[in-house]
Amino acid sequence: xxxxxxxxxxxDxxxxxxxxxxxDxxxxxxxxxxxDxxxxxxxxxxxDxxxxxxxxxxxDxxxxxxxxxxxDxxxxxxxxxxxDxxxxxxxxxxxDxxxxxxxxxxxDxxxxxxxxxxxDxxxxxxxxxxxDxxxxxxxxxxxDxxxxxxxxxxxDxxxxxxxxTxxDxxxxxxxxxxxDxxxxxxxxxxxDxxxxxxxxxxxDxxxxxxxxxxxDxxxxxxxxxxxDxxxxxxxxxxxDxxxxxxxxxxxDxxxxxxxxxxxDxxxxxxxxxxxDxxxxxxxxxxxDxxxxxxxxxxxDxxxxxxxxxxxDxxxxxxxxxxxDxxxxxxxxxxxDxxxxxxxxxxxDxxxxxxxxxxxDxxxxxxxxxxxDxxxxxxxxxxxDxx
Length: 386
Description:
By secondary structure, the chain is mainly beta. It has no helices and 33 strands. It has a 17-stranded parallel beta sheet, with no helix packed on it. The termini are far apart.
């Protein structure tokens, strides 16, 4: 049909298997289209239209298996599109729209396994898109959009394993994207954007093991990106940006082991980069920048053993770089810069044993370099300047 307005179209059955139920129209406005059943298996239920406005379209089932449920529309505005199911297995549910504005699109399920749930849109503004599941295994959930503004997109699961959750957009502004989970294992979660401004992106997990979590952007401004967990093991968490300005990036955990956490950028300005851990063992934590200005880069740990923590920059101006630990043993902590000016670099430890801490600069001017330790044994601390 062409126009469907103010109708109630409930589909209430016990079992729906192998049906083709297309909803193909130009304008869908103010309707209630409820799909309520126990078992939905091997069906094709496409929703294909140009304009979708103010509708309620809940999909409420106990078991959803091997179905195709695409939502393909030009404009999606102020709708409630809820997918509430007990078990979701091997389905394709793409949401492909030109403009997505002020909608609620929750995916609420007990078990989500081997599904393809892409969200592909040009503009995503002021929507709530929660993914709330008990077990998330082997799914592909990409969010691919041109502009993402003022949305809430929480990923709240108990056990996510072996999923691909890429967030690939041009502009990300003022959004909340929390990843809150008990155990995060063997997942790929890349965040690839052109401009990232004023967002909150916390990664809050109990155990993080063998994951790849790259943050690759051009401009990162005024964001909060905390990494808060109990156990961090064998992960790769690179932060690769062109410009880093006024952000908070704390890494707060109890036991991090064998991870790679590089911070590689061109211009970081006025940021707080806090590494606060109980025990830090066998790490490479590389801070490689061209011009860092007015930043606080705090390394606060209880025990620091066998780590490499290089700070390699061209110009270091007006920064605070404290190294505050209880026990510092067998580490390499080089500070290699051409021009450090007006910085504070205190090294405050209780026991310093068998470490190499070279300070190699061409022109140091107006800096404070404080070495405060209780016991200093078998260390190499050269100060080499022009």
